[in-house]
Every structure is written in C-alpha cells, then in structure tokens.
C-alpha cells in the first residue's frame, strides 16, 4: 500500500489570490479516495522534523529569522507568501513529510507527498513559493545516516521551472546528482547549474519531451548508480498551464510519470515523489494530472 504525506493546508491564513492554487492539496486526496486508488489509511499527517534535519541544508540564521517572522519585506516578496505562524507550520510539516516518505520508501519502495518539491529554496533564502527545500533536506538526511545504506542520490526534477535552489545546495556534493528538465524561458530567469540541465524551448510537445527523457534517464541511472531517487512531478508542463511555456498533453504528462516510476520500479530503486507546481485555469485539469502520478504508483507498487 502507498504511503502518502498530507500536511495541513492553512489556506484561510493566505490572501484570496493565493487560495485557488492551494485547492489542489485538498481536492487531490478526495479524488484518490473517491476513485478507490488508495484507502484512507494510506494517508499520514506529517510532523515538523527536528531542527538538525533542516539545518543540514539551511543556514541557522535564515531558519531563525524564518521561524520568528523576521524576514524583510523584500524577502517576503521573493517567496510570494506573507509570513504567518500557520504558513511556517505548514512548511516545516511538508519538509517533515518528505523526510518520513524517504524513511518509508526504503521499506516500501515508494512514498508520495501531497505537496513538496520546494526546489526554489536556497540555503539562505526562499524564492518562488518555496521557503524550505524538502527534497534537499531528505536527501541530506539519508546521506547522513550510513546505516540506511544510501550512498548516492538522484534528484529528477521535471517541474517546468528549474530546481535552482536544489542545484545550488548540492553544487559541491558529488553524492547527489541533480537533473532538471525545464522550460528555458520559465522562472527563474537566472538559472543555477544543476549536474544536468535540459532547457526546453517554448511549445515542446509530448513526442519531443518524452524522447529526450527516454534518451537521458537510463544513462543517468547507469552512470551515477543511485541508491535512492527523488522525483519532482510538477504538472505545470501542461499546455494549459498559465505559468509554463511547454505544450504537453495530460496523456503525455501521464506517460512521463509512468516512465520515471517504471524505471525506478524496474531497477528496485526507492523513490519519493513530490507534487511540485500546476497552474492550469481549470482546477480539474490540475487535480487529474496529479492524480495520474498516484494512480501509476498504486499500480506499480
């Protein structure tokens, strides 16, 4: 059975213009339960992790100011969120959920977070709706525990936006290979250097995208020989997305997920999946595209 982290939403504490994109975090679990993809027992409520697990990838000074609401107005604008204690509780719970997913995936093969993929968070700052980098923290946790047997990690970031914070955090960490396949003209305008960046032109379609992915990912598995995979499965690659510049169909997005998760399953690689972005005008398009990721995982595992 799948394990799925589901953090409290706290949407009431956000301005009205932030609430629509957050609806998917409530609607997706309802969709999965209504379809019978997973039982209610598959969901767990994540807890905030120990501070030490956060400080492996974040500066103490930044984390202290984040905890105590001392970000400058400029820093708040960069994150896109007004600070509140409820927002901080959600962000730490999301990170704690990805950490717990990593522990569960070692046993179960896969675990998923209904949130996460906060790949724009750097060691010393947040950007682009990301305050704390959950996948980076979970990868660092696994590597800090020799008893868990994880020596090398592969981060497969297929959100439409480059994982700039993740790339910067692991820029000098050879045990973590960062792979980002994203829209060349999408945010962030100033890109960092991942171990492998594939910047795609506007309008990239299913065939081009999937061919490139199929020609790349098996090679990365062979060359890096990871013991663990983190997958960021953003659905902002859809042609309908308001913020993306790519042109994948929902079926193309589903095939993308099936390929990545199928390879992990085939190679017996534990994988943690985080949702990432999705900003299509119709919330049903976002929820169904995200639900495909969970449907595929449920079929494979």
Automatic annotation (TrEMBL):
<protein>
    <submittedName>
        <fullName>Deacetylase</fullName>
    </submittedName>
</protein>
<comment type="similarity">
    <text>Belongs to the histone deacetylase family.</text>
</comment>
<dbReference type="Pfam" id="PF00850">
    <property type="entry name" value="Hist_deacetyl"/>
</dbReference>
<dbReference type="InterPro" id="IPR023696">
    <property type="entry name" value="Ureohydrolase_dom_sf"/>
</dbReference>
<dbReference type="GO" id="GO:0004407">
    <property type="term" value="F:histone deacetylase activity"/>
</dbReference>
<dbReference type="InterPro" id="IPR000286">
    <property type="entry name" value="HDACs"/>
</dbReference>
<dbReference type="InterPro" id="IPR037138">
    <property type="entry name" value="His_deacetylse_dom_sf"/>
</dbReference>
<keyword id="KW-0378">Hydrolase</keyword>
<dbReference type="InterPro" id="IPR023801">
    <property type="entry name" value="His_deacetylse_dom"/>
</dbReference>
<feature type="domain" description="Histone deacetylase">
    <location>
        <begin position="22"/>
        <end position="291"/>
    </location>
</feature>
<dbReference type="InterPro" id="IPR044150">
    <property type="entry name" value="HDAC_classIV"/>
</dbReference>
<dbReference type="GO" id="GO:0016787">
    <property type="term" value="F:hydrolase activity"/>
</dbReference>
<dbReference type="GO" id="GO:0040029">
    <property type="term" value="P:epigenetic regulation of gene expression"/>
</dbReference>
């Amino acid at each position: 059975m799948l394990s799925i982290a589901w953090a409290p939403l706290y949407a009431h504490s956000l301005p009205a213009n932030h609430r629509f994109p957050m609806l998917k975090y409530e609607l997706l679990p309802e969709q999965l339960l209504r379809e019978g993809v997973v039982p209610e027992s598959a969901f767990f409520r994540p807890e905030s992790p120990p501070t030490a697990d956060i400080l492996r990838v974040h500066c103490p000074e930044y984390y202290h100011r984040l905890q105590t609401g001392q970000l400058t107005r400029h820093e708040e604008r960069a994150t896109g969120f007004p600070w509140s204690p409820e927002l901080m509780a959600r962000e730490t719970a999301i990170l704690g959920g990805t950490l717990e997913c990593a522990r569960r995936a070692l046993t179960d093969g896969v675990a998923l977070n209904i949130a996460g993929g906060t790949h724009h968070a750097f060691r010393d700052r947040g950007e682009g709706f990301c305050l704390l980098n959950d996948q980076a923290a979970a990868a660092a946790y696994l590597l800090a525990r020799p008893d868990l047997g994880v020596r090398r990690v592969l981060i497969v970031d297929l959100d439409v936006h480059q994982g700039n914070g993740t790339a910067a955090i692991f820029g000098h960490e050879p045990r973590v290979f960062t792979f980002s396949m994203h829209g060349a003209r999408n945010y962030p305008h100033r890109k960092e250097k991942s171990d492998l960046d594939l910047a795609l032109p506007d309008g990239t379609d299913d065939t081009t995208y999937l061919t490139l992915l199929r020609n790349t990912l098996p090679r990365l598995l062979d060359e890096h020989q990871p013991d663990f995979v983190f997958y960021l499965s953003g659905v902002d690659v859809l042609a309908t997305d308001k913020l993306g510049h790519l042109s994948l169909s929902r079926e193309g997005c589903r095939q993308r997920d099936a390929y990545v998760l199928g390879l992990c399953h085939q190679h017996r690689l534990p994988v943690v999946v985080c949702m990432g972005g999705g900003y299509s005008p119709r919330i049903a398009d976002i929820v169904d595209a995200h639900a495909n990721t969970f449907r595929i995982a449920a079929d494979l595992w």
